[in-house]
Amino acid sequence: xxxxxxxxxxxxxxxxxxxxxxxxxxxxxxxxxxxxxxxxxxxxxxxxxxxxxxxxxxxxxxxxxxxxxxxxxxxxxxxxxxxxxxxxxxxxxxxxxxxxxxxxxxxxxxxxxxxxx
Length: 117
Fold this sequence. Notes:
The chain is of the alpha+beta class.
C-alpha cells in the first residue's frame, strides 16, 4: 500500500528536468519521515523536533468526554530542490483511531486554510 502511494506520488509530481528532481526529492524525504517504520504521531513529532524543523501549523481539538479528538501538525522541510510541508494527523472517533501523513508543495498551498472544521 505504501509503495503504491509513493509510486502514485511520483507519477503525479514527476515531470522533466527540475520537476522530476523535485518530485524524487519530495518522495524520498516523505519516505524517510513516515514509511521506514509504522506511522506514529509522537515519533514523527520527535523526529521533526530533532531535525529542528519549523512548525507551520499545529491544529487540535481537545478530547471530548468520550476521548474523541483530532490533532494535525505540519512542518516546513527545506530541501535543496525547494521547501515542502510535511503533515501528520491523528484522530480518535467512535469507530477507532486513525493516523495519516501527507506532503505538499507551495504550489498547492494556495487557498488552504489553517482552521479546524
